[in-house]
UniProtKB/TrEMBL annotation:
Keyword Plastid: no
Keyword terms of this UniProt record: Phosphoprotein
Protein name per the record: Response regulator
Biological processes, Gene Ontology terms: phosphorelay signal transduction system
Keyword Phosphoprotein attached: yes
Listed Gene3D superfamilies: 3.40.50.2300
Domain Response regulatory, chain residue ranges per copy: 6-122
InterPro entries found in the cross-reference section: Bact_response_regulator (IPR050595), CheY-like_superfamily (IPR011006), Sig_transdc_resp-reg_receiver (IPR001789)
Modified-residue entries (4-aspartylphosphate), positions: 55
Length: 129
């Protein structure tokens, strides 16, 4: 995977955010991390993000609301942004699907599973261009 692919990690647990940053950078991605869901649109625009890795439970707001907000945006880039949601909650997959997420991964997850999902979503995005 090329270094130019950019991933935004949105998780209110800074430890998880940093762990994902190290893992994804090791695998060749440029990674941005935020604990603030209100920054998602700004970071996507500024950094030309290719994929959002979004936690379902974020302090102050539900991650599914962030996904719905992206899908309902007036901006095409936001509506078409690949979103991979993650959660340890039972029945979270259904919530994420209803919010418009492209895919879901259960916590804890295997690194290989996460990387496969990311690569698949980025490949799908490239094919759609």
């Amino acid at each position: 995977m090329s270094n130019e692919r950019k991933i935004l990690v949105v998780d209110d647990d800074s430890g998880i955010g940093e762990m994902l940053k190290v893992l994804l950078e090791f695998n060749g991605y440029k990674v941005f991390v935020t604990e603030k869901p209100e920054m998602v649109h700004k970071i996507i625009r500024k950094e030309k993000i290719d994929l959002v890795l979004l936690d379902l439970l974020i302090s102050g707001i539900n991650g599914s609301d962030v996904c719905v907000d992206l899908r309902n945006s007036d901006e095409k880039i936001m509506r078409q942004m690949p979103v991979l949601m993650m959660s340890a909650l039972h029945k979270a997959r259904e919530i994420c699907n209803q919010a418009g997420a492209n895919d879901f991964i259960s916590k804890p997850f295997e690194i290989e599973d996460l990387m496969n999902k990311i690569e698949e979503l980025l490949k799908d995005q490239e094919t759609a261009k």
